[in-house]
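Support reply, case 0932

Customer input (verbatim):
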Amino acid sequence: MANKQDVPVLEVDGLSVSFRMYDDTDNMLAQKNLQVISDLSMHVHAGEVLAVAGSSGSGKSLLASAILGILPENAAVGGAMRYQGQEMTPDSQRRLRGTEIALVPQSVSFLDPLMRVGAQVHGDGRAHIFRRLGLPEETVSCYPFQLSGGMARRVLVSTALITNAQLIIADEPTPGMSLDQALEALRFFRETADDGKAVILITHDIDLAFSFADRIAVFYAGMIVETARAEDFSTGADALRHPYTKALWRALPQNGFEPIAGFQPYAGSMPKGCPFAPRCSFRSPRCEQEIPPIRDLCEGEVRCFYAQPHQGKYA
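Our regenerated output:
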């Protein structure tokens, strides 16, 4: 049996999320299930920042909603999630929300428009957090509509940081902030993890993420295709495992800004096999027929049949 310190704060095992939809076919409404997350497994430990990165539409925000149990009623969730080693149920998710698990939501509409900021962010550390995030003292007397988008985003960040939650899920916390403000917010999350809490940082900005995260889980079309150490991204493409992750690295401005042809498939139009196969120059007939299982490789994980240890090559 693992020691208590080895038990992840959060463990997600084989998560799937689908939505019950109705399709108008031949003037008749037909019910169908739209799969948006498939066979997703991940974990985060105390003292760790796990960045979840990927392009828009890959399913990152749905992961946060699934963990918190705030998906709409037409959603069906499969797999298992455990908090501190205990199975999570709808009842336990309700108890954990806002106490043990805090969310920095993506939309500033989560702020109550009828309440002043001071009533929504209250606690002994508020003044310190506001100063760190560059929010003036008078912010506490403002209503959300009186804030700029960047200020509202920083208020949302402060609502999570001021809690005693052991797990913070930050869903795209930095859009609308200046670079200095975004860096300070990310430093805050890093310090929060260093103090013994766990942080899941959901972002499309992989460049900022690997400067503050311990590990990065890369999303593509509702799946995690690779989980890598942050230092692997600093080392370069040859230290990464999946062809999509390598393409993300090469697409960064400082690495040549090289795009790849094609686009990410969306739910309802997924290929039969690996979702990245239509864009992958290393694909084989097997890739077009089978979805690769996740496997351990070089102190990380990858969902690819042909990834090899740190060679930058495929069989």
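We compared this against your earlier run and they match. Two observations from our side: The mean pLDDT is 92. Residues 47 and 181 are 23 Å apart (CA to CA). Please reopen the case if you see a mismatch on your end.
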